[in-house]
């Protein structure tokens, strides 16, 4: 309870064409902590993550990252939608890692990593390129800088995607099922990188089905079902001694 | 009974070790492929023979006129019409495509209407409209919309025959180009655009650096088709008495009566222009294939070199 929260969601609602995906979610992520979001498919995990960097607009409720409202400016009782440029500026300090990597296929690995720091943050090209190489070295891909993404394995592509997110020097990293599109034997290499990040004190919100990762790396585990937070707490409590029957049923199905 | 039993019996072991090291592969024979090859070869020989021996083709006259100054000038005009038509057409077409993909309903419907009209009316009719623009509007004035005019210019002076031809070709081409460009943008994976947005890359940069290069992969082959179509399409302009290639050969053969050789001259030049464009297309496609293919296709030069080295190695062996 020491530092101010990095992420603060209050009463977030979101519907897609009449289907209410998020039904009043409150969530707090403290700086330097790792939060793992678990839940059955269709429970709103991905949508929740996407509202944090405004890839989805919320219908109701407030999203704050590092004290700043996301997507809106508040004056009195009114919320003014921010112009795109300012949304982009706030967003560029939040790294997002997608399930399907979404690397740019026509750019080399190095250019994938260096693009946003140069064009979105306006940083010096030479410094950025040097930093990009360091990051790729950190995720174990120093020898792949000049390759095109399609020539890499899924695990390697996802590690490039993580390096790309890190290149923004983000305050916060969001992971949307980062290992779900990978062959089983490639999951480990991506989780290793993520564990490393967790140890180094990066603030992370991770949507995943990897219970093992949650147990080891998470400070908080959040269980989401039908658009609501059902249960949250330290992994030992939520995973090993869940209070709610729905959590118990889900874990029973996943761990079997 | 016993025959059935043998059919299902395990295969008899061949003599010798089974590691396959000393076995040679005998390629399957294709006798019918040889028959077909021979037949086609004979047909090709006959066609070439007919081309060379029939005096009516009059190859001497073809050679005489192929590089005649008037023909060269006509080729250059054809080229000029093509280049202006395709450049203006695709610039306008890209704007139309972006308008059609815009969330603004007015922009969308204006673009839709433009494409609807300019694709529906035959090119030859459009060309005549532009040519006769002066009958519609005597003069064109520039100034404040619905307000005072700053200066005025006679339509005949502003829109000469060449301008009318370029306008006609380009505006017609723009309607098709818009759809070509739009199809390129529709083909891009949404996830990558989302990734670009999530990285905070500014909109214009996102368009130029992320969207356009990926869209180009789909756009280039169709655009090249359009370009080649336009090279030949410029021949329609002959109705405006512009001395492009097709009009020029007609002028010559009505004077000399040598219809076939003059048509051949035009055909050869259209062939040359199209060939040059096709070669260009290969390299442009190769450029945008970066990252989309695991291995880039070899250029003809690389292929030639590879064949040569293989040949030398076989001779040496």
Give an account of the 3D structure.
The complex is a heterodimer of chains A (256) and B (317). With 256 residues, chain A is of the alpha/beta class. Chain A has a domain at 103-170. Chain A has helices at 45-52, 84-91, 109-119, 125-138, 154-166, 184-199, 211-217, 235-240, 245-255; strands spanning 5-16, 19-30, 34-38, 60-65, 68-69, 72-75, 78-81, 94-97, 172-176, 204-207, 220-225, 228-233. In chain A, the strands form three sheets. Chain A has a six-stranded mixed beta sheet with strand order 8-9-10-3-11-12, with helices on both faces. Chain A has a four-stranded antiparallel beta sheet with strand order 2-1-4-5, with helices on one face. Chain A has a two-stranded antiparallel ribbon with strand order 6-7. In chain A, α3 crosses α4 (125-138), α3 runs parallel beside α5 (154-166) and α4 (125-138) packs across α5 (154-166). Chain B has a domain at 81-245: MetI-like (MetI-like fold), CATH 1.10.3720.10. In chain B, 72% of the residues lie in helices and 3% in strands. Chain B is built from 14 helices and two strands. Chain B has helices spanning 2-8, 31-53, 59-66, 69-100, 105-120, 123-131, 133-136, 155-158, 161-186, 190-198, 203-233, 245-256, 259-288, 300-316; strands at residues 139-143, 149-154. Chain B has a two-stranded antiparallel sheet. The interface between A and B is medium-sized, with 30 and 24 residues.
């Amino acid at each position: 309870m020491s530092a101010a929260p990095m992420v603060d969601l209050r009463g977030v609602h979101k519907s897609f064409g009449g289907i209410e995906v998020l039904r009043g979610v409150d969530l707090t992520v403290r700086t330097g902590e790792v939060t793992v979001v678990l839940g059955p498919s269709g429970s709103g995990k991905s949508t929740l993550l996407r509202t944090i960097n405004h890839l989805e607009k919320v219908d109701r409720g407030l999203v704050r990252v590092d004290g700043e409202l996301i997507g809106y400016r508040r004056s009195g009782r009114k919320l003014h939608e921010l112009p795109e440029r300012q949304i982009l500026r706030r967003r560029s300090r939040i790294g997002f890692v997608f399930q399907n990597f979404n690397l740019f296929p026509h750019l080399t690995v190095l250019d994938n990593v260096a693009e946003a720091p140069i064009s979105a943050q306006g940083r010096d090209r030479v410094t950025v390129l040097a930093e990009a190489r360091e990051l790729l070295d950190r995720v174990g891909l120093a020898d792949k800088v000049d390759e095109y993404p399609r020539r890499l394995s899924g695990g390697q592509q996802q590690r490039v995607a993580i390096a790309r997110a890190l290149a923004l020097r983000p305050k916060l990293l969001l992971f949307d099922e980062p290992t779900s599109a990978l062959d089983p034997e490639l999951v480990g290499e991506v989780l290793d990188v993520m564990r490393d990040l967790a140890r180094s004190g990066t603030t992370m919100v991770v949507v995943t089905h990897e219970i093992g990762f949650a147990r080891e790396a998470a400070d908080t585990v959040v269980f989401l079902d039908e658009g609501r937070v059902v249960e949250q707490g330290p992994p030992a409590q939520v995973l090993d001694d869940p209070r709610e029957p729905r959590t118990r049923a889900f874990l029973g199905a996943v761990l079997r | 009974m016993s025959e059935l039993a043998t059919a299902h019996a395990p295969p008899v072991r061949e003599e010798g070790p089974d590691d396959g090291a000393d076995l040679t592969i005998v390629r399957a024979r294709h006798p019918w492929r040889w028959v077909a090859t021979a037949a086609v070869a004979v047909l090709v020989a006959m066609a070439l023979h007919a081309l060379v021996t029939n005096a009516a083709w009059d190859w001497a006259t073809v050679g005489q006129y192929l590089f005649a100054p008037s023909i060269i000038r006509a080729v250059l005009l054809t080229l000029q019409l093509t280049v202006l038509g395709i450049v203006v057409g695709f610039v306008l077409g890209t704007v139309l495509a972006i308008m059609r993909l815009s969330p603004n309903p007015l922009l969308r419907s204006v673009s839709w209407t433009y494409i609807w009209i300019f694709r529906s009316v035959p090119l030859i009719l459009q060309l005549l409209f532009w040519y006769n623009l002066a009958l519609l509007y005597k003069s064109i004035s520039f100034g404040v919309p619905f307000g005072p005019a700053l200066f005025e210019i006679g339509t005949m002076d502003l829109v000469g025959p060449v301008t009318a031809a370029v306008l006609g070709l380009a505006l017609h081409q723009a309607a098709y180009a818009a759809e070509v460009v739009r199809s390129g943008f529709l083909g891009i994976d949404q996830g990558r655009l989302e990734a670009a947005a999530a990285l905070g890359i500014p909109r214009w940069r996102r368009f130029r650096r992320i969207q356009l290069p990926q869209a180009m992969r789909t756009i280039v082959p169709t655009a090249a088709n359009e370009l080649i179509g336009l090279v030949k399409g410029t021949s329609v302009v002959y109705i405006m008495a512009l001395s492009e290639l097709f009009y020029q050969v007609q002028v010559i053969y009505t004077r000399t009566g040598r219809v076939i050789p003059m048509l051949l001259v035009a055909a050869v030049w259209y062939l040359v222009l199209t060939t040059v464009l096709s070669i260009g297309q290969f390299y442009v496609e190769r450029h945008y294939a970066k990252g989309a293919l695991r291995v880039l296709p070899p250029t003809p030069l690389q292929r030639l070199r590879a064949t040569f080295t293989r040949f030398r190695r076989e001779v040496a062996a």
